[in-house]
Amino acid sequence: MSFKKSVVVLIITIAIFAGIIFGSSYAWYAYNNAESRVKGTTIKETPTVIFSQTEYVQSREIMPIKDEDRYNYANKNSFTLTIGENLKDYETAIEISLKDITMSNELKTAGYKYELLQDGMVTSTGNFSGIGNNSSLKIMPMKKLQPLSFPTTYSYELYIWLSDDETNQNDLMGKSFSAKVSVNSAIKK
């Protein structure tokens, strides 16, 4: 009986030992073949964005403004975007959007407008009538920038205003709006 017990213990020990060897061999094989064989570099550079005041846009006391007076009285946010020398071998595209939008429901009309200028030229216009319950809005979809020299700095101005439509807009006055201007970039070789 003791010989049979010894054989059983020996077989169980050999099985456990073989399982450990097989498991560690498979683990080493799986780890060795899981490493990436892709060669290349990751670029950590992005265009530099500098806001004149802050990236936040806020209006607490909204008043109607004639469209032709928007550059004088509208809520304005200015910033620059610089594509440095380190990005001259890459294609650069940017997207500008408003994030974390908090606004009175009454302002979700075609009369509450925005306009984005790039170096003094209108690049995007729109209004907040279709925002619904969203808390973000793309002001300028992804657009490729093609600088002629490096570094190149682009100037942006974002205007947001309530357009005076010559009707009674008392229900829109005094409402509030706030959002964060977000500039995302994509770099491609």
Summarize the structure.
This protein folds into two domains: 1-39; 48-188, Sandwich (Jelly Rolls), CATH 2.60.120.
Salient structural properties:
2 domains, alpha+beta, 2 helices, six-stranded mixed sheet, four-stranded antiparallel sheet
Describe what this molecule looks like in 3D.
- The structure is a single chain.
- The chain is α+β, with helices and mostly antiparallel strands and 189 residues long.
- The chain has 2 domains: 1-39; 48-188, Jelly Rolls (Sandwich).
- Helix content is 20%, strand content 42%.
- The protein is built from 2 helices and 10 strands; from the N terminus they run H-E-E-E-H-E-E-E-E-E-E-E.
- It has helices spanning 2-34, 70-73; strands spanning 48-51, 56-59, 64-65, 75-83, 91-103, 112-118, 121-127, 137-145, 152-163, 177-188.
- Strands 1, 3, 4, 6, 7 and 9 form a 6-stranded mixed sheet that branches.
- A hairpin with a 2-residue loop joins strand 6 (112-118) and strand 7 (121-127).
- The longest helix has 33 residues, at 2-34.
